[in-house]
Design goal:
Distance between the termini: 23 Å
CATH class of the largest domain: Alpha Beta
Bound molecules: adenosine-5'-diphosphate
CATH topology of the largest domain: Rossmann fold
Strand content: 15-25%
Number of domains: 2
Length: 426
């Protein structure tokens, strides 16, 4: 029976949280979208439901989060975690406040801490103010975000604008004193009628202390950072046994492939490195602006080359080529065309027997996972920070899937990922 039930407001954020939990000793499964009534309860210590609710209309985000909570409660989870971005991505309307309020009401707990800190990635909270590196959130570039511009770094104020309830602060000086002081401060805030507390955190030690202080809380909210302290609570309570390898995945044999739709600098460099070692096909959507024809080319090319050495099929292109296709078709249509082509390729490759598949690009990964009707991902060992191998189940046959957000991974990522599988670490 799972111990921790998590609801994440986007897909890659869900994987980030799931990876954090595995690293800290919990076997974790990520489910895609609100689980249906027939969704089996995974054999895992933590379940992360990945929604796409960060920028959805408030009512939709609240509705889906409550439906996910309801399903997680039925599985017997003892504690719940609402995961959002470490840059606290939201607008004055939501969705962090309204979703948190609704989860609190459903759980009848009347209080939740909010902590997006992720010191390893430079996100820290001091006196309620969120920093990205040395810059305040509103001077970090996030103030120009196209969907959720963050123009105020004071999270007490930011959250205060979108929740019905008063928001308090557990300041640095209290957090420094450790778990008992933090727990007491949160109790006082709750007694004063505050339903939320922004909790300062500058180091991982702070996050561990906050996790310990919240051991008895029904609901926590935050980035993946604050989840690092939670597995230890379950171990201390004798509910979670120490495991040699919480990221162990079933072995899956079968041909390997990489599908790349990210045009990020990191992905372009990874394709460049792969070119010297494995077969690489670069699609040219500008010359062939037709999803079906592109997919056909790719599948014809790949069919005779499939094996344990991965084939790489990439639509990825440098900015001038992307701009040219966008000028020709419009930005959304260009993206949609390439995503459709790559989803077609993924489906065909799986039909041809591919069982180890890497997808590069957030939107591209979303399109592929949807097409393959993947419903759940058991989270395995990380290839590079934030990108684990996963064991995917859902549509057809089980397979190993790695979903890489565009900018993630070292230059040799594609090769390393498959070598790691053959080394038996996943
Ligand atoms: P990232 O994680 O790097 O943001 P995404 O997959 O989320 O990657 O986004 C990349 C977008 O670029 C996708 O919509 C993809 O279809 C599109 N794309 C990929 N190759 C090309 C290309 N050659 N021209 C135009 N758009 C492309």
């Amino acid at each position: 029976m799972p111990l921790l039930g998590c609801i994440a407001d986007d897909f890659t954020g869900a994987t980030d949280l799931a990876s954090t939990l595995v690293r800290n000793g919990m076997r974790t499964v990520q489910l895609i979208g609100v689980p249906g009534p027939d969704q089996e309860v995974p054999d895992a210590d933590a379940v992360v439901v990945a929604l796409k609710s960060r920028t959805a209309p408030v009512a939709q985000a609240v509705g889906e989060s409550l439906a996910a909570l309801e399903w997680l409660r039925r599985t017997g989870c003892r504690q719940f975690f609402f995961k959002y971005c470490s840059t606290f991505d939201c607008t004055d309307e939501g969705n962090i406040g309204p979703v948190g309020d609704a989860l609190m009401a459903a759980l009848d707990c009347g209080f939740a801490l909010a902590n997006p800190a992720f010191p390893t990635n430079g996100r820290t909270v001091y006196q309620g103010h969120l920093f990205v590196g040395a810059a305040l959130l509103n001077e970090s570039g996030m103030e120009k975000h196209p969907l959720t511009p963050m123009r105020d770094a004071n999270l007490v104020r930011v959250l205060g604008r979108q929740t019905r309830w008063p928001v308090g602060l557990v300041p640095f000086t209290t957090v420094e004193k450790g778990a008992t002081a933090i727990r007491d401060a949160m109790t006082v805030l709750k007694e004063q009628g505050r339903h939320w507390a922004i909790v300062d955190a500058v180091t991982d030690a702070h996050l561990f202390a906050i996790g310990e202080a919240a051991a008895g809380h029904a609901l926590l909210t935050g980035g993946s950072g604050v989840a690092i302290g939670l597995p230890e609570n379950f171990r201390r309570a004798g509910l979670l046994l120490p495991l040699a390898d919480p990221g162990a995945l079933p072995q899956v044999r079968g041909p390997a492939a990489v599908i790349a739709g990210s045009c990020s600098r990191a992905t372009l460099a990874q394709i460049g490195i792969a070119r010297a070692q494995v077969p690489v096909l670069e699609l040219d959507p500008l010359a062939t602006p037709d999803a079906e024809a592109l997919a056909h080319q790719a599948v014809q090319w790949a069919a005779g080359r499939l094996g344990t050495v991965p084939v790489v099929i990439a639509a990825s292109a440098p900015p001038d080529r992307v701009a040219a296709l966008q000028a020709k078709l419009g930005r959304d249509a260009a993206g949609a065309l390439v995503e459709r082509a790559l989803a077609d390729v993924a489906e065909a490759l799986v039909r041809l027997g591919v069982r180890r598949l890497m997808v590069a690009g957030g939107e591209t990964a979303g399109a592929v996972v949807t097409r393959l009707q993947v419903r759940s991902l058991r989270i395995g060992a990380e290839i590079d920070p934030g990108v684990p191998w996963t064991y995917a189940e859902g549509g057809g046959e089980a397979m190993l899937l790695a979903l890489k957000s565009g900018n993630f991974g070292a230059p040799d990522f594609f090769i390393k990922a498959f070598t790691m599988l053959d080394g038996g670490t996943a």
